[in-house]
Each structure stands twice: as C-alpha cells, then as structure tokens.
Design brief:
GO molecular function: ribose-5-phosphate isomerase activity
Number of domains: 2
Radius of gyration: 17 Å
Catalytic activity: aldehydo-D-ribose 5-phosphate = D-ribulose 5-phosphate
Distance between the termini: 18 Å
Function: Catalyzes the reversible conversion of ribose-5-phosphate to ribulose 5-phosphate.
Shape: globular
CATH architecture of the largest domain: 3-Layer(aba) Sandwich
Binding site for substrate: 28-31, 81-84, 94-97, 121
EC number: 5.3.1.6
Bound molecules: ribose-5-phosphate
Strand content: 15-25%
Number of helices: 7
Length: 213
C-alpha cells in the first residue's frame, strides 16, 4: 500500500475516537490533513476543533468546522496528530512541519493523544529524523553551542519562521536512547521554546494505517 494510502487510512481510523458533542484537538501535517477531511463528514456531530497551526486552522475553516481558542475550550478529551518518528514506547519526534510548540500545548491539554502515522515512521530508537527545536531568534547561536556540547549537530532551518515568530534548529547525529531525559535537559537551555521530543507525554494510541498499536 502506498504511503499516502496508509496516511489516509490512519486519518479515517482516528474518527472512531471522536465523541459526539466534543471539541477535538487537531494536529498538523499531511497525515492530519486526511483526518480533517474525514472530520468534515461528521462536523455536525462535534462542537468544533482546537487547532495547532495556521495551516490546520485554514483547512478546518474551509470545511466549515468551527475553530475554538484553547483558553475558551478548556481541557480536551482527544488530540489527533501525526509524527515524524515513533518508537515502540509510543514516544515521538515531531516538528518536521515546524508546528511542535502549539502541538505540544494542545497535546498536554488533552486526555488522550491518538497518533496517526504510516509505517515509515516506526523506528526502534528515535533520532534518525533530525530533532526539531524551536528557539527564540536571538538565542539561536547560544542554543546551537549548548547542543554541540551534547554531541548534537544543529542545523538552522533557514527561512522558516514558526507560527509563534520563532526559528527552528534541526539536530542531527543523536541516537536518542533516553528521550525523557534528553527532553528535560534540552528544555533547560535558555532560549529553547520547545523540543520536538514527545517523550514525557507520548502518544496513548498509535494508528499505523488502520492498525492499532
Ligand atoms: O510540525 C509538524 C508536525 O509535528 C507533524 O505532525 C509531523 O511533521 C508529521 O507530519 P506528516 O504527517 O506530514 O508526516
């Protein structure tokens, strides 16, 4: 089966987790785009969505799905999002699309995180995909130096500005055997806004195509 078909199946399978009359947390990316298309078919059953990016907001609005502010919506039952890598413990690397900070916030505010991926995202150890880190622009060089001390190879994603007005460093060369510890350590560096490791708060359910892990 093609990668696109696996993404579509995963997006459609996640609809089974949507409860009537709920507000749904919505992630970002090409896999989530299939979920949003499927959500449009049941839009009369939900109250609306909280979005993790301008990109998803635009797609939700095109479908006539109401987009709510997280502060107004309160805690959510469900967050659906893709990932760049997923390990056997449902810990993730995210942020390939630069949406990691808002994704992390909406995931944290949600009771259940359903992650939708195709099989190419499954790995034994995280780190082959360069780890995205969102930084305050003036801190870019400082954060990069701290990462180099940890034997990472940071590359500035030149030209990318996040929805929050910040920049992204992609860190190459790490084999991340303890993602919870690395997530905490990186979060301590001054100037780091958020880290694309979703380890302390990983996924609760992973759907690889329509197969549940
Ligand atoms: O910032 C982007 C997000 O973390 C995405 O969820 C991630 O990059 C996966 O995107 P896709 O479904 O397009 O592979």
């Amino acid at each position: 089966m093609t990668q696109a078909n696996q993404k579509r199946l995963a997006g459609e399978a996640a609809i089974a987790y949507v409860e009537d009359d709920s507000v749904v947390g919505v992630g970002t990316g090409s896999t989530v785009a299939f979920f949003i298309d499927a959500l449009a078919n049941i839009k009369d059953r939900i109250r609306g969505a909280v979005s993790s990016s301008e990109q998803s907001t635009a797609q939700l609005k095109r479908h006539g799905i109401e987009v709510l502010d997280l502060n107004a919506a309160g805690p959510l039952d469900l967050y659906v999002d893709g990932a760049d890598e997923c390990d056997p413990h449902k810990r993730l690397i995210k942020g390939g699309g630069a949406a990691l900070t808002r994704e992390k916030i909406v995931a944290a505010a949600s009771r259940q995180f359903v992650c939708i991926i195709d099989a190419s995202k499954q790995v034994d150890v995280l780190g082959n995909f360069p780890l995205p880190i969102e930084v305050i622009p003036m801190a870019r060089s400082h954060v990069a130096r701290q990462i180099s001390k940890l034997d990472g190879h940071p590359v500035w994603r030149d030209g990318t500005v996040t929805d929050n007005g910040n920049w992204i460093l992609d860190v190459h060369g790490w084999r991340i055997t303890d993602p919870v510890a690395l997530e905490s350590e990186l979060n301590q560096i001054a100037g780091v806004v958020s880290v694309g490791l979703f380890a302390r708060r990983g996924a609760d359910v992973v759907l690889v195509g329509d197969r549940k892990l």
